[in-house]
Amino acid sequence: MNKQEELRFTKKMQKKLAVLFVLILVAFISLSVRLYAINRDNGEKYKKQVLSQQEYDSITLVAKRGDILDSNGSKLAVSQKVYNVIIDAKTLNGNDQEYLEPTLQALYSTNMTFLFSQNELRDFIRQNPSSQYRVIAKKQSYEAASPLMDILNNTAEYQSIKGVWLEDTYQRQYPYNSLACDVIGFVQGDNEGIYGLEEFYNNELNGTNGREYGYLNDDENLERTIKPAQDGHTLVTSLDANIQSIVEKHILAFNEQYRNAYRDGSGSTNTGVIVMNPKNGEVLAMASYPVFDLNDPRNTTGLKIEMPEMPEMTVAGEDVEQTTGNEEESANENAETEENTDQVQTLSPDALNPGAVGEAYEDAFEEAKMDALNALWKNFCINSTYEPGSTMKPFTMACGLEEGLLTGNENYRCEGVLNVGDHEIHCSNRLGHGDLTFSGALEKSCNVAFMKIGATIGRKTFMKYNKIFNFGLKTNIDLAGESRTDTLVFDEATMNPTDLAIGSFGQGFNTTMIQLVTGFCSLINGGYYYQPHLVTKILNAEGATVKAVEPRILKQTISAETSEKIRQLCVNVVAEGTGKSARPAGYMIGGKTGTAEKLPRGTENYLVSFIGFAPADDPQIVIYTVIDEPNAKEQASAKFATVLTRDILTEVLPYLNVFQTEELSEEEAAELAEKQLLFSNGSTLEEKETVEEETGEDAENENSEDQNAEQEEEVFERKIQYDPETGYAIDPTTGDLLDPETGRPIDSTVSDLPDTPVSPITFVDDE
Amino acid sequence: MNKSKNSKRIEFFGMFDYTLLFIVLFLLCFGLVMLYSVSSYEANLKFQDSAYYLKKQLFATIFGVVVLFLTTILNYHFWDKAALFAYFVSLGLILLVLTPLGYEANGARRWLNVGISLQPAEVAKVGMIIFFASVVSKFGKRIQSLKSTLFTIGLAVPVALSVLFITENLSSAIIIFGIVFMMIFVATPNYKEYILIGVVLLGIAAVFVLLVSKGILPETLSYRFGRINAWLNPEKYASTTGFQTLQSLYAIGSGDIFGKGLGQSMQKLGFIPEAQNDMIFSIICEELGLFGATAIILMFIIMIWRFLVIANNASDQFGALLVVGVMAHISIQVILNIAVVTNTIPNTGITLPFISYGGSSIVFLLSEIGLVLSVSRGIRLENR
To answer: Pairing relation of β-strands A234-237 and A68-69?
Structure first.
């Protein structure tokens, strides 16, 4: 029994166990109190904390910007889905950096291009443990990102890879690089189109971004919901990539051919070509020079930056001088003198501080760079305003014929000069064209005859028709950046007989290329003025048509009969007159040349052009070629434009399946064969030779009068004399001294070509 | 009624403690429900199977219940004979971790792969309870001498130290030592010495904490020092060592009285990583509120009270001490677990018995309950 007692749990032990139990009970109770205290003291705070930790943050689901297609469905602009790689340093630092190394290994084993090296990234992750969003690779292609996608989609296999994810985005790409760059425009920043179609149709092209976001429902449960992105619409344009590239090829060839021919630089200040379908107002090609790569619009390589010379007096440091040295040629020095003086004044307080000067120089350089880029991006064909010159003459004739003021049977006598008002206005041929028929007046582009026609028509009717042809009004073509010319045309109220006289042959007022070509289409298509446009169809992301743009006739400008007569007159110009060199072998076309002297008068700067249609009997295309200041000693020859036009038409007409109607002479056939070879080779050097040959050949065939006629206004104002006392140029027609800055006569009572409301060719920002 | 004098004979279901069984089964079921609620989100994310943890735990629980049944029907005196064996098995299994059989998970080498995964520290806890119940009951009154007391405690040192250093498991070492300490406390009549030991231990801990918090003992010396700093100032270490604790406090604090409702926890959605392990009690607080948390604590109190009753009525000292050991084990673990989630003590990995996820833990806890129920079966009415 004793033994058993000993083995039993003694009273003392029971007592101690009771003490233990009480101690445990106390511990439990204190912990319960602690739980209560946490709730009482921090309950509200922690409740908010818990809610605020939830991921309400919304993720933007980027909408795809619509494509831009040409009329054959070739993609001119596309949006490619690309991927940004994001890392979450917080996750990678978690769990004693368990995921860090495997994830980095996995990332850098892919062939993506990262913004950081592996070590830089590791340092970043260690130094920014709370960062949850860091882009480490931008705009990776699907091919580059797909290995990482596979890893991220297979979480079961790759458990140690965490804290990295891919973000979808889109990149705008232009498969043809610089093709139709001025027309298409490009995209900057957050899908914002600038210039061209990208800007004009920005809203249609941009879809609506979607969102994925979290919210608390009624039961305070977090729910996430997705509003899918709506992709943008696709534009189908009337542009034909083939015609466009033919046009651009020849513009480039021309500009390379005449590069550094007379002055340093490209073959012209600017060259613009518009090819349009006169039957519906659709633009088939629209190009200008120089071009830029749409995929890299900010590349300034080869761009001439007009940089003001820095004032050397204030420059304390030598380094600034050095940087200034290589920038700018002396050509612009004089023009910039005024600006420089301003800068001297504004800079003088900082003159002691060379750093400030350097900074100011940097700023000025940036500004100059932006100006140069803006000029590059602008579309010459719709943005530049200029005096059209003789290409206006068919309009003047159409006006007289339509109103019955002219019959077409008139005869004119040109003695080389005509007195209008107080002015003696010379014809291009100072010796005079002699007796001319109505058609002959256009063929020879006789200014005297047209001044007479202008006088017959009268101011009111002339202005009425200028309005009918929409001169001074925007065409509202669907491109961003069309210039306003409403202040650059004659005002009927203040217009004097001299204005009327020069206006009748296209001087004294400004147009844009698109205005003139749109009006010309109506001259030769039976009088229908179509709204010019590029977009023919808008498709939604699924490919269904949202909007079809039908050809839109805005008005009837002239009757079909008048149109027929003008067409015949224009054919005569090419067949017999100044436009001979524009005719492509095997085809008959119609058209009119233009050689407009630019402001300031007397600087020997010309804008030469040719506007024509082909084929002659049933015009399918209208082409308008403008060359601003061709790089030659004698700029005033429309031949620059006609030859370029012919080169373009020689390729475009066969492409459009227009049959040859004219017999080929042996020479033409040989030449054509040679050219086709050249076109396919695309060699500009050989082409240059051919064109030169051409010129010689033509000259042989023509008599001296023709030659004169071809160079029309060339004689006019060519020989500039300088006043020995002042050094100012003398206006050859009036004998007045010309102010070297404005080009206006100093004694401005008389002038041959008054600089009426016109300003020199400028890029005018509308809006 | 069996009136045999043989004290070692047990009537089959004499004083079987149904209350205890009921509480255990309740906690098991409750634990499974909570486990599913807590772990489904993360399981779905990791394994594409929201019931991944539940299935594993359910399997372990069923196996544990079988073990509970077996240990219940087995006469607990069998363990008295196997006491020395239990001691060496415990020690041996811990040493086996060093062999290729051991494997590492979550950064610590604590597991054995013997067909199924096994945590030797869990075996050691049961082993120590059996071994010390046997040793102390054999010592009888001699245990009261300081020498024998120190000797007995000394027997626990090799196991506790190997748990601490070989498996790098401080919390299990503390629990093992705590169990032995409590068993000896109950077996000896003294108080003064224990109060003294308690005060000394507290003092050492306080000095230690002070040294760490002042930076005299740099954090780089041991990751545990970092946990001490995080315990003192969890907000300062919100993104690193204090993250888990702070998130746990957020969960408790946002629960209010009745909680957000079963399954409605927000903190389990990735904010408390692996909440089904040590931090499950904070999610219980969040989902079921103070009410639910207090109810669970009450269940544990009742369980411990049942242990008290069974120990007091056990037919012999060995049985009583077995129950005391189990009582010590469970109460230490519950107290430490809740103390950790409420940031009352520094963070250390201790699971909540019967509720937290963990196969070894649940099986060996149920075997301990089986021991207690076996002891309860041996209670003879006439001895009361």
So the answer is: parallel
Q: pLDDT tens digit string along B282-301?
A: 999 999 999 999 999 999 99
pLDDT digits (tens, 9 = 90+) for B244-279: 888 889 999 888 889 888 888 888 887 887 888 889
What is the crossing angle of helices B243-253 and A11-53, to 10°?
90
Per 3-state DSSP, chain B is made up of helix, strand and coil in percentages (nearest 5) of 70, 5, 30
pLDDT band at A694 (very low <50, low <70, confident <90, very high): very low
Which residue type does A626 have?
Answer: V
Please indicate if any CB of chain A lies within 8 Å of the CB of B253. yes
CB atoms B253 and A47 under 8 Å? yes
| List of chain A residues whose C-beta atoms are within 8 Å of the C-beta of residue B325 | none
Domain boundaries, chain B: 18-383
pLDDT band at A728 (very low <50, low <70, confident <90, very high): low
Can you tell me whether residue A307 is helix, strand or coil?
coil
Domain A53-74+176-234: CATH superfamily is Penicillin-binding protein 2a (Domain 2) (3.90.1310.10)
Looking at the partner chain, which of A16, A54, A129 has a beta carbon nearest the beta carbon of B186?
A: A16
Residue (of A557, A70, A76, A659) closest to A278 by Cα position? A557
Domain A78-172: top CATH class: alpha beta
B146's tokens? 């300081």
Q: Are A226 and A248 in contact (CB under 8 A)?
A: no
- Beta carbons of B187 and A13 less than 8 Å apart: yes
Whether B285 has its CB under 8 Å from any CB of chain A: the answer is yes
The helix/strand/coil state of A431 is coil
Reported as a pLDDT band with limits 50, 70 and 90, residue B231 is confident
Among the residues of A348-392, which ranges form H helices? 354-377, 380-383
Instruction: Using CB atoms within 10 Å of the CB of residue B347, give its burial: 0 to 12 exposed, 13 to 18 middle, 19+ buried.
Output: buried
Across the range B23-51, mean pLDDT stands at 90
**Averaged confidence pLDDT in chain A:** 79
For residues A66 and A207, is the Cβ–Cβ distance under 8 A?
Answer: yes
> Helix, strand, or coil here: A159?
coil
